[in-house]
Design brief:
The protein is of the alpha+beta class. Helix content is 16%, strand content 49%. α1 links the parallel β4 and β5. 36% of the residues are buried.
Length: 197
């Protein structure tokens, strides 16, 4: 069993590029940050900090291209700042959502238990269309997302190869890296991801 504990941020931009940032405090590869980007033409790019991270993530999610380069990320109470290959991002964090406050009261062992995440999967999709808490991680493995808290993202500035990606927007259309998208509204979630063989 693999467990990754950290944060996932999902946001759209005025250019049509949508970004999903995984900021992992603990994982089988140690602490690292990765970026999944899908542009307005549907081209999916992984920005990974190492060949090992690129291989690990590439076995779970689908990409059209992969860029291995340093990924520098700082998450504070106010902002998420990322410099990764062609991407420069600063996203400002807002308050915890109502659903986020509810999730903070779920006992930690229950919140990340695969059986629980299978059970609540249909409800998760109703509360946040496009979101799935249990699905396939490829190769016959199963993946589970145990969200512990949710905060809004209130604004963002982002560039790709120096070109402005435009203002913060919803994640529309949903991203297409794996079995689940992220919430349509820009959000950052505290999450434990579990992968079972």
């Amino acid at each position: 069993m693999d467990r990754l504990r950290g944060y996932i941020a999902g946001l759209g931009t005025g250019s049509g590029t949508r970004l999903v940032i995984g900021h992992w405090l603990d994982s089988p590869l140690g602490a690292f940050t990765d970026v999944m980007a899908e542009d307005d033409a549907g081209v999916r790019t992984l920005l990974a900090p190492s060949d090992a991270a690129a291989r690990y993530i590439g076995e779970i999610y689908r990409f059209d291209r992969t860029v291995v380069s340093p990924v520098d990320a700082v998450l504070s109470r106010e902002a998420l700042r990322v410099a990764a290959g062609p991407l420069r991002l600063e996203a400002m964090l807002g308050p915890v959502t109502f659903l986020g406050r509810v999730l903070e009261h779920v006992p930690a062992p229950l919140a990340v238990a695969p059986w629980w995440l299978r059970l609540i999967n249909p409800v998760a999709g109703m509360l946040a269309p496009g979101v799935v808490t249990a699905g396939s991680a490829g190769g016959g493995r199963r993946e589970f997302y145990g969200v512990r808290s949710i905060r809004t993202l209130t604004s963002a500035t982002a560039t790709w190869d120096g070109a402005d990606l435009g203002p913060l927007t919803p994640v529309e259309p949903p991203v297409n890296f794996g079995f689940s998208s992220v919430p349509g509204a820009p959000r950052i979630v505290a999450v434990t991801t579990t992968i079972l063989p």
